[in-house]
Amino acid sequence: MQWFGLSTAFLATISWALCTFPFTRAGRVMSVPTMNLLRLVAGAAMVLLFTLLFEWSNVTAIFSPVYLDGWLWLGLSGIVALCIGDFLSYRMFTILSPRYGAVFATMSPASALLFGWILLNESVNVVGLVGMTITIGGVLGMSFSRQERKSIPNHGQGSVLRGMLYGSIGALCNGIGTVCSKQGFLLQLERGYPLQPLTGTFIRIFVSALIVTTILFITGKLRKQARNLVAQPPAILRIAMLAILLGPLLAVSFSMMAIQTINVAVAQTIYALVPVVALLVAHFFYKEKITSHALVGVLLAILGVSVLIWRNDISMLITGT
Model-level pTM greater than 0.85? Predict the structure, then answer.
């Protein structure tokens, strides 16, 4: 089952990296608040459709009191990660671009490790910590060496410093959200009423959509965002829907599958490879140059994840046990 978790974590990473490009383009045109509303509402509808198709029996049962823990923890996860964390992350992407913005995903493993230890009593051995450090160091070196920082284009969306602040807080929220999601799955399993991945994804995004829509309604901004959404060109709406398919549906669902079988800090470290995938996409599809610093960073990141995955075997070789 661990290899299933690792495989779905890598699939989530690829989906997240791919979705940052259409989300960034749509966010620069329609504004991040409008895109965030569309992402959550349309994402909830899309996830619900797939959940009804593949997990019908679980969907019809979750509106009973026995699933209260799932609603509490997965709902909290959605508020922290999807409402706050993703909003700040996508705001950061419009400033820094997907290639440079995705580097802040490297902060999520530390957040997941700390809160996973507090809530779930999970831990990673010393070899695993070394692997996490190598991965994070590689990605940071790849994306924010002096040479790379100078090449960040000005998209007129805000200062680089503000983008970095948004990215840091967003990554912290995403790490905490992952831990809260796993807590919800574990508590439901202990109750004898387990949640399936798609159903858990629906709870997260449904609660998030409900919260965001309610806040916009109370503040009187819902009508403005709805008008802005209707006024968007069809081409931009198609781009946004592609991003929703890749992000809220595929990436989040794959991540929910992953954390049910592997350590949350391990999962978040694999998700930290998003900048590596984004770099390759930027190179092959957008013709951005890969510098020598970036290449070394990619190799270090891959090495670090390899050490993390094989941490127990490496530890046994070192200790001879």
Answer: no
